[in-house]
């Protein structure tokens, strides 16, 4: 599992960093000026290898899970990032979503993280989905799907409480969890569909909300043409585009670059797809020069090692 954890941790940071300089660029622009390496400056004027809030909050999630699952500890670790740049690429915050900002302001002023997240329909950006990867490892040995859903719902809900955001996180974590033991991406995808659809069919969730994920849960998202894949910051789009990139490529490098070159919310698509690809293909398949040049590389390795040691003893089971 060390290859998977290290691969996922570097996978998210590098996918994120590949996308940071070209965030908001159009697909047409990137088709003419494709990203093929770690570049810098651009949109956020950050040096090459800089990751954004996607990876920072993912590392905060992992950090808090090292001591076991405590929603208050996790939420206040997020506040440390928000206020002090904890786990920032350069110890500062340069990018934060509106829904996440509002939620962490509530946490910082003493509101319970069980009620801080945005719950309006317009608050369905990808700010919870982007940080869920460590949860898949933490829940690897948890066989009760009801417990898995409850924990995922709470963790998403720190910033994003709407069911649409929670369901995206649940689908993503379930897929990553299956990928920990499955070798074939497509078979794992089918197994995820079977598991998630089975769970949804036995609970009284709003069918109009579930329908937003019809392309992911009832069809094969990989079979849709690129022109029908939207890579905006909307949580449904991010989940679809990340899965589409993962299922239509055959290496970490091609997956991450494909994700970024879709344009739009490039850092988050790169992060969500990159985390999954890094988990699946493993640390050794990620280009060494990317690993060496991503921000806080040595600290990412140390966090991955500490996380690996911790989940062997404290993971939910």
UniProtKB/TrEMBL annotation:
Gene3D superfamilies: ADP-ribosylation/Crystallin J1. Pfam families: ADP_ribosyl_GH. Mg(2+) binds at residues 52-54, 265, 267-268. Its cofactor is Mg(2+). Binds 2 magnesium ions per subunit. Signal peptide: none annotated. Keywords: Hydrolase, Magnesium, Metal-binding. The keyword Metal-binding applies. InterPro entries: ADP-ribosylglycohydrolase, Ribosyl_crysJ1, Ribosyl_crysJ1_sf. GO terms for molecular function: hydrolase activity; metal ion binding. Belongs to the ADP-ribosylglycohydrolase family. This is ADP-ribosylglycohydrolase. It comes from Chitinophaga niastensis.
């Amino acid at each position: 599992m060390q290859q998977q954890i290290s691969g996922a941790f570097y996978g998210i940071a590098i996918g994120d960093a590949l996308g940071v300089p070209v965030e908001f660029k159009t697909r047409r622009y990137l088709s003419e000026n494709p990203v093929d390496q770690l570049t810098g400056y651009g949109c956020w004027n950050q040096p090459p290898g800089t990751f954004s809030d996607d990876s920072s909050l993912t590392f905060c999630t992992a950090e808090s899970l090292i001591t076991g699952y405590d929603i208050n500890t996790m939420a206040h670790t997020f506040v440390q990032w928000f206020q002090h740049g904890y786990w920032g690429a350069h110890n500062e915050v340069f990018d934060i979503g509106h829904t996440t900002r509002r939620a962490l302001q509530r946490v910082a002023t003493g509101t319970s993280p069980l009620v801080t997240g945005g719950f309006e329909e317009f608050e369905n950006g990808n700010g919870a989905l982007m940080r869920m990867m460590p949860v898949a490892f933490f829940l690897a040995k948890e066989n009760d799907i009801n417990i898995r859903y409850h924990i995922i719902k709470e963790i998403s809900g720190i910033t994003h409480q709407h069911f649409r955001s929670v369901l995206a996180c649940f689908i993503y974590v379930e897929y990553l969890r299956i990928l920990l033991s499955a070798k074939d991406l497509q078979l794992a995808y089918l197994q995820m569909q079977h598991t998630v659809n089975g769970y949804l069919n036995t609970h009284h969730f709003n069918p109009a909300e579930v329908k937003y994920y019809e392309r992911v849960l009832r069809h094969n998202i990989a079979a849709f043409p690129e022109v029908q894949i939207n890579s905006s910051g909307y949580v449904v789009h991010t989940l679809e585009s990340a899965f589409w990139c993962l299922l239509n490529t055959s290496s970490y490098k091609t997956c991450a670059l494909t994700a970024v070159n879709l344009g739009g919310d490039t850092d988050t698509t790169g992060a969500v797809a990159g985390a999954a690809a890094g988990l699946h293909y493993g640390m050794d398949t990620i280009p060494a020069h990317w690993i060496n040049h991503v921000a806080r590389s040595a600290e990412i390795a140390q966090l991955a090692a500490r996380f690996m040691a911790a989940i062997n003893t404290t993971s939910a089971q």
